[in-house]
Amino acid sequence: MIPVLLKRWLGFPHLCANPKSIFIGLIGGVGDLVLATPSVAALKKRYPSAKINFGVGDGIFFNTIKNDPNIDHFETPFFYNTWKKRARRKIYRQKYKDHDLVFLLDNGTLDWWKQKKHLMDIYAEKCGVVLEQQRPTFHLNENDFYEADKKILELGISEKDKILVLSPETRSKKNMKEWPYERFLSLIHKIRDNYNFKIITMVSKDNPNQYDGTIPLKGYPLGPSAAVISRSSFYLGLDNGLTHIASCFDVKMISVHLGYPVECAGARSPFAKVVSHNAFDPPESISIDEVYKAFKELN
Asked: Fewer Cβ in 10 A, N or C end of the chain?
């Protein structure tokens, strides 16, 4: 048996029957953070008296989980080199000085998907919890709803209009995960010709593309964006952060999933239909007709 103090020094996880303080660190994207929320909730339920401290990047990453009621304190910006074992062990040792349990949720390898486990389940295993629900959560506040409702009115959309939120962009791994721009344009025209939706396109402020036939919403803050999605009738996106946020709400949705295997990173919502082929197939492998067929099946 390895003594607990030695485990801490080596950066190995260990058990604690009654922790008073828990540190969770996750250096990842918006979708990764959303998928970690069930594990945070499960830890809080298992150890209700423990204070949970969450280490997260600043900006959009902090904004992803800043309203989570299961988290007592945030350390932001939080960063370490996830690819270096020595740096990881150092962080473990530092955090164990102040906490009874430490969970670093980075994968530490580019081959994480070869486990054939969903990220949500990987995080649960790392935290030593069993998930009661296989669905993430995104917590909104009153200001998010206020800003969303105000923006919807500014865009000329009434309460009677049906909203479709389109998210055709990823923050990283664009060559692997983004569906061709021209196909999105063709899909938009098909939808507009046959359905009565007001389409809001959410992209970054630097996105150079024009999505004709839609209402552009560039660089809009994350919280209000999530509130707009929660108010919508339909969501259509890629394997990105907004898609995982959409999976938190009772909204019909389609994910055009490219890149990592669906069983490892697909949207987890009972309202979602995922259009995908084999892992790492070229983006052109998914046709417009496939996505439109899925859209028709849900409408």
From this structure: N
